[in-house]
Specification:
- The complex is a heterodimer.
- Chain A is α/β, with parallel strands linked by helices.
- Chain A contains 11 helices and 14 strands.
- Chain B contains 13 helices and no strands.
- Chain B is mostly helical.
- Chain B has one domain.
- The chains are: A alpha/beta, B mainly alpha.
């Protein structure tokens, strides 16, 4: 079942088309929403939440139409907005409890859940402090806590690492991964940071000027990329290439003794080392191709609108 | 998810009925207001007119007390328990309500707006209308407690103490006080919420609430004087409410007063227009996202 399905979705704000005829199905466990500023990422999120009404077409979340079932959709969503969004004059635990009850957690369970969520995100010691006294990183974490406290089926995280220092960012990424790996929640992560999306998502939707520039299953790409190997060697002869090809690899040689290989499923890295040892070749460097998301993103940005479909 | 384990586990427990979400907003709103000592002090002060009225009712209905007071040399004028008495009592309760709402109105909503909490609040199964209604109901609850509830209780008290059948003969007072109070507190609540939704700074919002009440009244009075008309009173909220209360309680007023008063229909249309204006201001402001202007 598709988590999010876009069917000719068009959203106009102040007579300006912000999202223009989006079509596509997103079924990943963690979906990245990428695009430059003004590409429509936040508008798409707001539309899914029912904050903006589609002017044409529609979108479905868990098969529920955003036009007619926004309330039911919101009941199954946990939302972490991009900007500051909290009640400053109450404590963190009070705020998370309040949001839990609004989401439907009974009052008798809400306080316990709020404590658990605050501890989980790492705010256990400061949970009785007023949110207005929190640092930026703590504010991001309390927003995450209120998003997960009620057991949402879909977590929408809008720029979750915004303004965080490297340590706090790493902590946030780690939390997102843990939530993702818990297995029963889907994430929609909007970010302009490719690295964040690359580290957390298995599917990506790239927007450009209100259009879909690409939809890509990163997990499949990664699986494919695991077979792409770049080698840098010393003292390799033509025979090295021949031996590798005999293993079943596709192989190309580049100046500077650099090799690019596509390995079949049956070949292991160990086989390459074996051949190298037999032929007295030193393997100085070995890389998997790691820049796939960046490649996809740049391809999508360079492509004409709406024509790039990677991995669909 | 246990505290000591610190690993994520999705909540799978019971979920409350969606009808109760409005109650959650109301409960947290009311609790926030009650947590302030100033709210408590203002609330108690708002009850003073009722206590005074209750004392007067008791004395006027108790010959022994009146005799005792007379014997001690103090004069105890006979105050009739009629429309005029309850009109004065209603005014005595309704104007302190303005002070109460000037404090609690902005407090109720400013916290949500000052740090832009609406996107998070409205991302839950709560509509904008429900949010506003919940806040309004909190204000109506507080204001009811200092307006029509004490006045109604005093009406019952007077009925109980009266030696002659009194309640049935004066039931129009009871109805008038209830309707008059409701008109007043609905108007006050809407004005307070709309002003607070546009002005994040609480002190300014409080000042603006008083200004909304009295500045148009001054302008209306000047308009009346310059134009030699009475229609300037259409923006004079204190005057309009006084006229409505007089008519609702069927108070006998001097002829010149009634000649200068505006028709009830005009007053109600003016109040409805003010309420609509406030609702429109709230509609523009209570949103999860700013409306982008082209």
């Amino acid at each position: 079942m598709a988590v999010i399905e876009l069917s000719g979705l068009e959203v106009r704000l102040a007579n300006r088309v912000v999202l223009d005829g989006l079509n596509g199905k997103l079924a990943g466990k963690a979906i990245g929403l990428l695009g430059p500023n003004g590409s429509g990422k936040s508008t798409l999120i707001n539309t899914l939440l029912g904050f903006h009404a589609p002017s044409h077409g529609t979108a479905h979340v868990f098969d529920l139409d955003v036009r007619t079932h926004s309330r039911e959709i919101r009941a199954s969503i946990g939302y972490m907005p991009e900007n500051d969004s909290f009640i400053g004059n109450i404590s963190g635990i009070h705020f998370v409890r309040y949001m839990a009850e609004l989401a439907g957690v009974p009052a008798s369970n809400a306080l316990e859940r709020a404590h658990e969520a605050m501890f989980y995100v790492g705010l256990g010691e400061v949970r009785y402090r007023k949110i207005s006294t929190y640092s930026l990183g703590m504010k991001q974490l309390v927003k995450l806590a209120q998003a997960i406290v009620h057991g949402a089926r879909l977590l929408i995280l809008d720029e979750p690492t915004n303004g965080l220092d490297p340590v706090a960012r790493q902590r946030m990424i780690q939390l997102i991964r843990e939530v993702r790996d818990a297995g029963d929640v889907t994430l929609l992560i909007s970010s302009h940071l490719l690295r964040d999306v690359d580290e957390t998502c298995d599917e990506v939707l790239i927007l450009k000027k209100g259009h879909i520039a690409a939809i890509c299953n990163l997990e499949e790409e990664r699986r494919a990329n695991r077979r792409f190997i770049e080698l840098e060697t010393v003292a390799a002869q033509e025979a090295f290439g021949v031996a590798i090809r005999q293993l079943g690899c596709e192989c190309a040689f580049f100046p500077g003794e650099r090799w690019k290989l596509v390995m079949p499923e049956t070949v292991e890295i160990r086989d390459l080392y074996t051949i190298a040892a037999q032929q007295g070749v030193q393997i100085r460097k070995m890389n998997y191709r790691r820049d796939s998301l960046e490649d996809i993103f740049l391809t999508a940005m360079d492509s004409k609108l709406g024509v790039a479909r990677v991995g669909v | 998810m246990s505290v000591f384990k610190r690993s994520y586990k999705r909540y799978t427990g019971p979920i409350s009925n969606e009808r109760f979400r409005l109650g959650v907003l109301m409960r947290y709103g009311a609790a926030d207001l009650w947590s302030s000592r100033i709210t408590n002090v203002v609330f108690v002060l708002c009850m003073i007119p009722s206590l005074i009225s209750m004392t007067v009712i008791y004395i006027m209905n108790n010959d022994a007390v009146r005799l005792l007071l007379s014997s001690q040399g103090s004069s105890t004028p006979k105050i009739a328990m009629d429309e005029r008495f309850f009109f004065v009592m209603l005014q005595g309760q309704c104007w302190p309500a303005l002070i109460l709402i000037a404090w609690i109105g902005p407090k109720l909503i400013a916290g949500d707006l000052s740090n832009d909490a609406l996107p998070i609040i409205l991302s839950h199964p709560i509509s904008r209308v429900e949010y506003v209604v919940a806040k309004l109901l909190v204000l109506l609850g507080f204001l009811s407690a200092v307006t029509w509830i004490p006045t109604s209780m005093l009406f019952v008290f007077q009925s109980y103490l009266s030696k002659t059948p009194w309640a049935a003969e004066h039931i129009h007072i009871f109805i008038g006080m209830f309707i008059g109070s409701m008109l007043w507190i609905i108007l006050l609540s809407l004005i307070a919420l709309s002003v607070a939704s546009w002005v994040k700074w609480r002190i300014v919002a409080t000042g603006l609430l008083f200004a909304t009440m009295f500045v148009p009244a001054g302008v209306g009075t000047v308009f009346n004087a310059v134009m030699r008309t009475k229609w300037g009173n259409l923006i004079n909220i204190p005057d309009m409410m006084e006229t409505l209360w007089i008519r609702l309680l069927q108070v006998n007023m001097p002829g010149y007063f009634m000649r200068n008063a505006l028709p009830t229909t005009a007053l109600l249309i003016s109040l409805a227009a003010m309420c609509a204006l406030c609702a429109s201001a709230l509609n523009a402001r209570i949103r999860a996202r700013e409306v982008v202007r082209g």
